[in-house]
Amino acid sequence: MEVFDMREFDGHELVLFGHDAATGLRAIIAIHSTVLGPAAGGCRLWPYATTTEAVADVLRLSRGMSYKNAMAGLPFGGGKAVIIGDAPAVKTPELFAAFGRMVDSLRGRYVTAEDVGTTTADMAHVARVTQYVSGLGRSPGEAGGDPAPKTALGVFLGIKAAVKFRLGRSDLSGLTVAVQGAGGVGYHLCGMLAAAGAQLKVADVLPRAVERVCDEFKATPVAPVHVLESQADVLAPCALGAILNSRSIARLRVPVVAGAANNQLARDADGEALRAADILYAPDYVINAGGIISVSREYYGGTEAQVIEDIQGIPARLTEVFERARRENRTTNEVADQIARERLGRAPVSQRLVA
Ligand code: NAI
């Protein structure tokens, strides 16, 4: 595996492979950048088929965290961890303690938290052996706890900013929002949208997740295979990554795409297809920063009220990206990447490729 030559490598500062014989831990920690602070990003537990797949994922996610943290103005660099394994089979308190020792060996260059496949309870085992962990339980009024409702709040405010920019409307009353995925983030987002007077079309592969939002928020169910072609004012992807590709973009019937899912564009070039179709795309890592804002306030010590206040900055940052993209006749994802890279002191992507 030629790690240094991988497309995802992008000048990572450090990649650490860890193994613990007693617990069977196989983990990789990637630190993309510590220019703006300790590299922060969650720990994903996933049954990767090959080590190459795990390395590519951790590098891609780690770079994404650099961009997200830089755009959100947080005192964090970008990093990520993956544990290779199948959640129910490998999960033990000892496994997470072994992972915690690996995190601790970096003496604060990397701060971990929960991600896909890991929970607040798992992070409590990590916290037994290292202080470099966030996303733990919290007392009332303190920052922290489950980041999903905070991510949902940022996405809700971001949708309002996108609607204002693209449709010239300052409220969501009577508009239709199609939501793909009614999980941790999607459920809370549906609640906020319904309270703002939006009509909801919701799809989830879990029937009970859809039933809950239909019962509580009068949403209309949509089959998961059809949600991307829903006629609506906004599409809010809150399930999977890479859902925006040349085939799906041709079928979209919305003027705005704004949702929580990470890595929504299958390729950077798909941003151009959205622009050509006059669809405003809210770059995912700008709109979904509410969760990491919460993690940051928790890690450095802050209150729930400060988290909510910080999240109010998301719509302004999005609008700055939208305006610059319109002015410069470029895609919103390109503009966001450029702003993030400037903040990280890195060359624009085109210069990097030439060098
Ligand atoms: P979750 O796992 O709680 O919810 C995802 C939901 O999507 C589940 O209910 C699942 O059944 C559904 N789903 C899966 N495949 C689907 C499909 N093909 N069609 C329709 N529904 C499908 O995850 P969570 O936490 O709500 O996150 C949602 C997205 O937002 C993910 O991409 C995540 O990476 C991203 N995100 C989440 C953050 C957080 O604070 N939880 C922070 C930033 C990004």
What are the main properties of this structure?
disordered C terminus; alpha/beta; 355 residues; binds 1,4-dihydronicotinamide adenine dinucleotide; 44% helix; 6-stranded mixed β-sheet; globular
Describe this protein's structure.
This protein is of the alpha/beta class and 355 residues long. Helix content is 44%, strand content 15%. It contains 15 helices and 12 strands. It has helices at 51-71, 87-90, 93-104, 120-126, 148-167, 184-195, 207-217, 246-251, 270-276, 284-287, 290-300, 304-311, 314-328, 332-343, 349-354; strands at residues 14-20, 25-33, 39-40, 43-46, 77-84, 110-111, 176-180, 199-203, 220-221, 234-237, 256-257, 280-281. The strands form 2 sheets. Strands 1, 2, 3, 4, 5 and 6 form a 6-stranded mixed beta sheet that branches. It has a 6-stranded parallel beta sheet with strand order 9-8-7-10-11-12, sandwiched between helices. A hairpin with a 4-residue loop joins strand 1 and strand 2 (25-33). Helix 1 packs across helix 14 (332-343). The protein is globular, with a radius of gyration of 20 Å. The relative contact order is 0.12. The model is unreliable at 351-355 (pLDDT under 50). Bound molecules: 1,4-dihydronicotinamide adenine dinucleotide. 1,4-dihydronicotinamide adenine dinucleotide binds next to helix 5 and helix 6. 1,4-dihydronicotinamide adenine dinucleotide (NAI) binds at residues 147-148, 151, 180-186, 203-206, 209, 224, 238-241, 260-262, 288, 291.
